[in-house]
């Protein structure tokens, strides 16, 4: 390993450790209010809610990130944004799965991803209810707590469990139903858990075999897509191209063969949504 590579690797490891600590701090805050009557909600569009702890979690993460990485930009799911002085930007979802959280459903998480330009550098998905922290850094592999993780190895749609999100806004219902109609006859099972970030982490850990999510934002998929890639899987936009900060629909799968098979099925549809 060259000296430059060594410095870059050590830097990423250090930054990843800080991101893990911040995500876990946020998780502890969220757990304090989870399942209690102190959780207050307000409408966020017709089919979604935001809780007071979304904002509190976001504020905590923003404060910690700005202190640790003062030159980096930050984009948060609930609307906060810090302008970057360099070509690096953090994407964070302080509570992915808010609706689940508000109803006491234990499937929600904190998600943090760092990009340099369009290149994802590291990602953390922390599940406080199970004490599970998924983490990955470019070229350094993917981990669940202290154990390395790998995708399932599923190679055929017929043996795959696919996490498929059907959005309920705008073009979401017809597109989601079209996806379901074209994919369901060819796969083993579908799931929709209500947290895109955690679903991608489950693909990386071999619990699901693939994940399709349209109408997405970088804070939804930034950490999870890198987890899948570093766990040996394949991840792209829904056309098979490289995903980036501008991508709005993603596909991740345990293997390149499964990824290609799902793409082929998806492209049977005449109505495509980027």
> Helix and strand succession?
HEEHEEEHEEEEEEHEHEHEEH
Helix percent reads 25-40%
Biggest sheet, spatial arrangement of strands: 4-3-5-6-7-8-9-10
Gyration radius (Cα, Å) is 18 Å
Task: Describe the sheet with the most strands.
Answer: 8 strands, mixed
The N- and C-terminal alpha carbons lie at a distance of 40 Å
Shape: globular
Note poorly predicted spans. Answer: 1-7, 45-49, 270-274
Instruction: Give the percentage of residues in beta strands.
Output: 25-35%
Number of helical segments with 4 or more residues: 7
Tell me the number of strands.
15
Average predicted local confidence, pLDDT: 88
Folded structure, characterized:
With 274 residues, the protein is of the alpha+beta class. The protein is 36% helix and 26% strand. The protein contains seven helices and 15 strands. The protein has helices spanning 3-33, 52-68, 98-102, 172-183, 196-204, 218-230, 256-266, and strands at residues 41-43, 49-51, 73-76, 81-82, 88-96, 109-116, 119-127, 132-137, 141-144, 147-148, 161-164, 189-191, 210-214, 234-237, 249-253. The strands form three sheets. It has an eight-stranded mixed β-sheet with strand order 4-3-5-6-7-8-9-10, sandwiched between helices. A five-stranded mixed β-sheet has the order 12-11-13-15-14, with helices on both faces. Helix 1 runs antiparallel to helix 2 and helix 5 (196-204) packs parallel to helix 6. The longest helix is centred in the first third of the chain and has 31 residues, at 3-33. The radius of gyration is 18 Å and the shape is globular. The N and C termini lie far apart (40 Å). Mean pLDDT is 88; it is low at 1-7, 45-49 and 270-274.
């Amino acid at each position: 390993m060259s000296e430059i590579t060594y410095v870059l690797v050590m830097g990423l490891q250090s930054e990843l450790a800080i991101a893990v600590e911040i995500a876990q701090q946020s998780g502890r805050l969220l757990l304090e209010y989870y399942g209690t009557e102190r959780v207050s909600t307000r409408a966020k569009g017709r089919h979604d809610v935001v809780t007071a702890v979304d904002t509190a979690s976001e504020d905590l993460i923003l404060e910690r990130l700005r202190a640790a990485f003062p030159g980096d930009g930050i984009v948060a799911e609930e609307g906060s944004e810090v302008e970057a002085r360099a070509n690096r930007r953090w994407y964070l979802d302080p509570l992915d799965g808010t609706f689940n959280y508000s109803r006491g459903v234990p499937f929600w998480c904190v998600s943090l991803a760092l990009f340099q330009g369009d290149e994802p550098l590291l990602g953390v998905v922390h599940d406080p209810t199970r004490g599970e922290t998924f983490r990955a850094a470019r070229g350094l592999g993917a981990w669940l707590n202290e154990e390395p993780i790998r995708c399932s190895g599923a190679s055929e749609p017929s043996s795959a469990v696919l996490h498929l999100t059907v959005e309920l806004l705008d073009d979401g219902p017809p597109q989601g139903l079209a996806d379901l109609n074209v994919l369901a006859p060819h796969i083993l099972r579908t799931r929709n858990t209500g947290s895109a970030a955690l679903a991608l982490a489950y693909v990386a850990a071999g619990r699901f075999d693939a994940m399709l999510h349209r109408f997405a934002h970088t804070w939804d998929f930034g950490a999870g897509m890198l987890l899948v890639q570093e766990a040996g899987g394949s991840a792209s936009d829904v056309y098979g191209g490289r995903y980036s900060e501008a991508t709005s629909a993603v596909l991740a799968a345990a293997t390149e063969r499964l990824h290609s098979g799902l793409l082929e099925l998806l492209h049977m549809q005449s109505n495509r949504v980027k």
